User: Fold this.
Amino acid sequence: CSSDLLNDAKGYNATVAGGGANMANGNYATVGGGTGNGAASTYATISGGWNNNVAAGYATVAGGGNNRVEEPYASGAAISGGIGNRINGSPYSAIVGGSSNAITMTSAYSAIGGGDGNRVHGNSHYGSIGGGGTNTIIQAEGATVGGGVSNSITGLSFANYATIGGGKGNTVTNNYGTVAGGCGNLAGGMGAFVGGGGYEWK
Assistant:
């Protein structure tokens, strides 16, 4: 036996079903398998993968690698897979997959479907990013980015219920604003709408 691969179930009624170097330290916590996973909170669950960590009650990581669900206030959050995804401070939020996506800073009930480097944070409850890359929702409750690249819904005075369908480099900065697509467009007025257009010079 290798001491580096020993499993450890310290929590009350905790379970480690298999794999190596896994820990279930929370009460009723479960690790199904994989390597180097840690379920540290009550009813935390990690199904498999590697180097995943759940440190929030009733939260889940299903697989993938280097995914994190962390307190404070991340109860019931879930990451299905992917690599390097993170949820903290955002209870009942979910990341389905992709890489380096994050839901942070009290953005409860938010979701990221996939893609790379997408962010929902800063009191953006019910925020949603479908996919794409480096899209952000900041201080915008109920906002949605469907996809695309480097799109941003940001409300310094809030941009609640704003929408960007896709495209690249589009921005909405006010409540109920919409950019359907295109490149480099801005909807800055309340309820403003941009259907598309814009052009990226090569």
